[in-house]
Amino acid sequence: MKSLRINAFLNTIRNVLNMMFPIITFPYVSRVLGVTNLGKYNFSYSVVSYFLLIAALGINTYAIREGAKYRDNKRLLNEFASQVFSINVVSTILAYLLLLLTVITFGELHSYSVCIAVFSIQIIFTTIGTEWIYSIYENYAYITWRSILFKIISIILLFLFVHKSSDYIIYAGITVFASVGSNVWNFIYARTFTHIVFTFRMKIREHIKPIFVIFASSIAIMIYVNSDVTILGIMKDAYVVGIYSVSAKIYTILKTILSAALIVTVPRLSLFYGQKRFKEFTETASSVFNLLVLLVFPAVVGLIFISRNVVLLISGVNFVRATSSLQLLSMAAIFSIFAWFYSDCILIPAKMENIVLISTIISAVVNLVLNFLLIPYFSENASAFATIIAEMVNMFITIKYGRNIVTINGFKRNLYSVIFASIFVAISCYIVNLLSLIPFWSIVVSVILSSITYFGVLIICKNKLVITYINERIFRNK
């Protein structure tokens, strides 16, 4: 069985690479496209994202959870993989039909139709990619190397072909290529693990209920993840969407990097729970949760204090208004990551996706109501605040039910030392801000100084995770 540490490391590298693409390209793109065309780009993507969700139909999560039980039996996995892939093909056709009908029906979307069409290419290629196969077998090395190759090619294409504000459609095409360019090869290479074919014997009755429950949860998640951009585009304008897009992009980068450890543990936790190996399930869940506590709090505190410089570095002075919404969204990351842990790592492996559904529906409703009530008065800051409240509601509900399944060992002591050490992160960043350095050097100095201070305080407080890691490294070197 592959090491979770290695898998987490590889997936972190992969997510860092996925995030490096916008980090490297966004400063260039935001300056070339400008606020308005960047808003058009993001609004078009937000529209297509709903139909991407319809095509996905919750199959990725379901396939990983159920497929992990079959990975040692190739015959059963072949049957299972072909069935869920075939269901996915049907949902993909339905998604395209609904997208076409939507664009034709709503006149407001006609001016975005070309960009929407470009983004819609992701729908079919995401289905073909069957990336859940690689997660079932925890083959993160392949996924990581593939990501490196296509991100490098995409960055080259960006600087070659995007030179003026009207090139936002070309940028959309490059973004699609970066996301799904390798998915045809994915489908071919997946034969190394299993033989996937389209079949009319989908056993829909067996699969459809859990798939639809997960799908409904995904819809609710999508609503409170993407509804802010959509509602801003409808109630305000492309300029406000462009401003909010910067803070939302940075927020997404933070969440994606911090959640890398979660993604790789889902197949393992599903395997442990499915085989009733509850001791290993608890130990693994406790390790992941405490690691998240160790990483999430200082990252959020640090980003709140360096938000202005991050916005200036990535997007320039024209987007500095995004600072306040980024600071609000940074706080939402804490609730988001821990809600994600309890839903994807605890409740779904335990087949309690109905609780995840209820939680996400309630959170989505809260988010929608707050967006509609507050956006007319507070614009993008209203969307960020609504995200905080929605993520908080989601976290409290998932924790309430998740605690009945697993008890996290060593949580309180770890949390106390982390919160105490995070105070020194805030102090370090505040002191660096007083130096009035240029944004790049201010961020670099803040990260280095706060990291040294943070881990130094944790060592003094004898944080168990940090001390154990140091002892392991010393023992290994000897």
The average pLDDT score comes to: 83
Q: What sequence of helices (H) and strands (E) makes up the elements?
A: HHHHHHHHHHHHHHHHHH
The biggest beta sheet reads: none
Identify the quaternary structure here: single chain
Structural class: mainly alpha
Query: Proportion of β residues?
Result: under 5%
Tally of helical runs: 18
- Principal-axes geometry comes out as globular
Termini, distance in Å? Answer: 26 Å
Radius of gyration, in Å, reads 22 Å
Please report the total strand number as a whole number: 0
Helix content: over 70%
Task: Report low-confidence residues grouped into runs of 5 or more.
Answer: none
Provide the descriptors you would attach to this structure in a database record:
478 residues, mainly alpha, 18 helices
Structure description:
The mean pLDDT is 83. It is globular and about 65 Å long. It has 18 helices and no strands. It starts with a helix and ends with a helix. By secondary structure, it is mainly α. Helix 4 runs parallel beside helix 8 and helix 10 packs across helix 11. Helix content is 83%, strand content 0%.
How do the strands and helices of this protein lay out in sequence?
Blueprint: H1 4-56, H2 59-67, H3 74-105, H4 113-119, H5 121-129, H6 132-136, H7 140-161, H8 168-180, H9 183-189, H10 204-235, H11 238-258, H12 260-274, H13 278-315, H14 322-347, H15 353-402, H16 411-434, H17 439-460, H18 464-477
Helix pairs in contact: 1-3, 1-4, 1-5, 1-7, 1-8, 1-10, 1-11, 1-12, 3-5, 4-8, 5-8, 5-9, 7-8, 10-11, 10-15, 11-13, 11-14, 11-15, 12-13, 12-14, 13-14, 13-16, 13-17, 14-15, 16-17
